[in-house]
């Protein structure tokens, strides 16, 4: 599904990624954990096509295609979804209008017919319930005036409607209370399938109590220094990241 080889990147003069190697199979859930400034969000943004960062080495393939050669919209059409740590607001554009246009663009890229308004509304109401998103938010401008929890639920709702092949969730759990965390996790778990992979970036093990990953990776100082199963996240909860500072990249 996703293959990252020796990925190196910088922003201006600051080197951030110093050789990332990561391979994800179809249907797998991988979690990346690490302290602030370790490069986790940089990796997510580069995969999504953020041009603020300069890739200085290595490569990324999505289902065999050169991901780095694609424009952001091409990556979306290829089935990549990015859930942002800080979801953007789009004043003046209703949530439902924006999402219907995005869904139809995704369907067109898959060679499917556009969804009709009745079917779209039925599907939107069903998927909104997955994350306990109030239906009134469908008619409001995208994320405008939403609480932090509503914005994160809305991100997962968008993911559920777009049905991506690869979903990257950048600290979706940050700032959520326990009820919102469970709702977000429930939406992700409903979307798990043998055809869909997830890359989850988080500081904390608590999210992984609800979304059980197949693999956990520790990122420190721009490198993945350890990989393992869910027990690795539990170890981090007990020990913190200090023990990994001097480890060589895996």
Structural write-up:
With 250 residues, the chain is of the alpha/beta class. The chain contains seven helices and twelve strands. The protein has a six-stranded mixed sheet with strand order 6-9-10-3-11-12, sandwiched between helices. It has a four-stranded antiparallel sheet with strand order 2-1-4-5, covered by helices on one side. Helix 4 packs across helix 5. The two termini are 21 Å apart. 39% of the residues are buried. It holds the Pfam family ABC_tran. Belongs to the ABC transporter superfamily. Ycf16 family. Keywords: ATP-binding, Nucleotide-binding. InterPro entries: AAA+_ATPase, ABC_transporter-like_ATP-bd, FeS-cluster_ATPase_SufC, P-loop_NTPase.
Provide a brief overview of the structure:
With 250 residues, this protein is of the alpha/beta class. The protein has seven helices and twelve strands. Helix 4 (117-130) crosses helix 5 (148-162) and helix 5 (148-162) packs parallel to helix 6.
């Amino acid at each position: 599904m996703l293959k990252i080889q020796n990925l190196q990147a910088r922003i201006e003069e600051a080197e951030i990624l110093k050789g990332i190697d990561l391979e994800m199979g179809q249907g797998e859930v991988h979690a990346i954990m690490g302290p602030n400034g370790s490069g986790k969000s940089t990796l997510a943004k580069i995969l999504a096509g953020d041009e603020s960062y300069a890739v200085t080495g290595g490569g990324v393939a999505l289902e065999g295609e050169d991901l780095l050669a694609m424009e952001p919209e091409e990556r979306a059409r290829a089935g990549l979804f990015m859930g942002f740590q800080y979801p953007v607001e789009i004043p003046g554009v209703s949530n439902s209008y924006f999402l219907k246009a995005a869904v139809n663009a995704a369907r067109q890229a898959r060679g499917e017919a556009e969804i009709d308004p009745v079917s779209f509304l039925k599907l939107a109401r069903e998927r909104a319930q997955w994350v306990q998103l109030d239906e009134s938010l469908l008619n409001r401008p995208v994320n405008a005036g939403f609480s932090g929890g509503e914005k994160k639920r809305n991100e997962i709702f968008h993911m559920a409607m777009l049905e991506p092949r690869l979903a990257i969730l950048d600290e979706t759990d940050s700032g959520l209370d326990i009820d919102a965390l469970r709702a977000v996790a429930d939406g992700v778990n409903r979307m798990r399938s043998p055809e869909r992979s997830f890359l989850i970036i988080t500081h904390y093990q608590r999210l992984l109590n609800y979304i059980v990953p197949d693999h956990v990776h520790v990122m420190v100082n721009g490198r993945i220094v350890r990989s393992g199963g869910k027990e690795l996240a539990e170890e981090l909860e007990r020990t913190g990241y200090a023990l990994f500072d001097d480890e060589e990249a895996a």
